[in-house]
Amino acid sequence: MKWIDRIGYFATGGIVGLTACLSVGSSNSEQVMEERPLVSAMTVSPETPLQVTFCDRTLDLRRYNMYEGMDRELSSFTYFHSTTMLLLKRANRYFPVIEPILKANGIPDDFKYLAVIESHLDPLALSPARAAGMWQFLEATARSYRLTVTPTVDERCHVQRSTEAACRYLKDAYAKYGDWVTVAASYNAGMGRISSEMDRQTVDSALDLWLVEETSRYVYRILAVKLIFEHPYKYGFVLEAKNLYKPFECDEVTVSDDIPDLAAYAGSLGITYADLKRFNPWMKDTKLQVDGRSFVLQVPRQKDLFYETPNRTVHDPRWTIQ
């Protein structure tokens, strides 16, 4: 059976027919059943669960604010089609990088979804508040968690290094709260704000706090993305392996000296300046000043620069229909 034949009422598991029976009133008050064609596209409220699991903890969502908070974000990501589909495609490239770093640092795997909502898995993401990179560090916070930020280097945009820094923050927050949900909320609001509000409002969970809208929605956004990533077909996202972005294999080049002209340097490596910047988004300028440090450059292999054959690498088999 082809995939198109299997698409049904994904939110509830029912099957949608080609016609629907509608009750309409007649002149003699009798109910008449009339067959009418369905519209070509439907907007169906997605199924909102009464409980979800985050970092091996089951969260009860039956309380009105929690249920409605989850419903809002699940509806948003379900019908923000182009963005959510792009997130799944990018995850195929970046989750294999992020997951081992989280595991090596003792951070629950579910925190990869925090990176999804922070930056849409874009290493060059920049917020209006000037937070940068996949994990959206402010410059001062980045330096405090041992990331290099100079006129020519910004490791907030280095996927591996920024993930390691995020792990350091998350470990500090867990040592303070002992609760991963509160840790997640603190990533948005800051530990100072979460701690002061928990004391002022006399509650034990960040989900019970009255906070600004962005922070109030934050944890539910993580939970909604997790649910969709674990059940994409249920929420209407139908992808094949060829639709996902393939991971890249790169050669590593260690640089300990300044590079005055990155365009010329890229040419010496057999790649374009644009490719050098895309694969090393932490480079901020047209030159590189190492300031006594060493940096490892990712140099893509020529065979990976073209989609000459369809992608066959699927990081999570739940993401595709094959």
Structure description:
With 322 residues, the protein is α+β, with helices and mostly antiparallel strands. It has helices spanning 3-6, 64-79, 81-104, 112-119, 139-144, 159-177, 180-189, 191-201, 213-230, 262-268, 273-279; strands at residues 19-25, 31-37, 51-54, 57-60, 250-255, 295-300. It has a two-stranded antiparallel ribbon with strand order 1-2. A hairpin with a 2-residue loop joins β3 (51-54) and β4 (57-60). It is globular. It starts with a helix and ends in a 22-residue tail after the last strand.
Search tags:
alpha+beta; two-stranded antiparallel sheet; two-stranded antiparallel ribbon; disordered N terminus
Give a nutshell description of this structure.
With 322 residues, this protein is an alpha+beta fold.
Helix count from the secondary structure assignment: 11
Q: What is the succession of H and E elements?
A: HEEEEHHHHHHHHEHHE
* Share of β-strand residues: 5-15%
Reported for the largest beta sheet, the result is: 2 strands, antiparallel
| Integer-rounded radius of gyration | 24 Å
Weakly predicted, low-confidence segments: 1-27
* Beta strand count: 6
Counting helices, strands and paired strands, the structural category is: alpha+beta
Shape: globular
Physical arrangement of strands within the biggest beta sheet: 1-2
**Mean pLDDT across every amino acid position:** 90
Kindly report how far apart the N and C termini lie: 12 Å
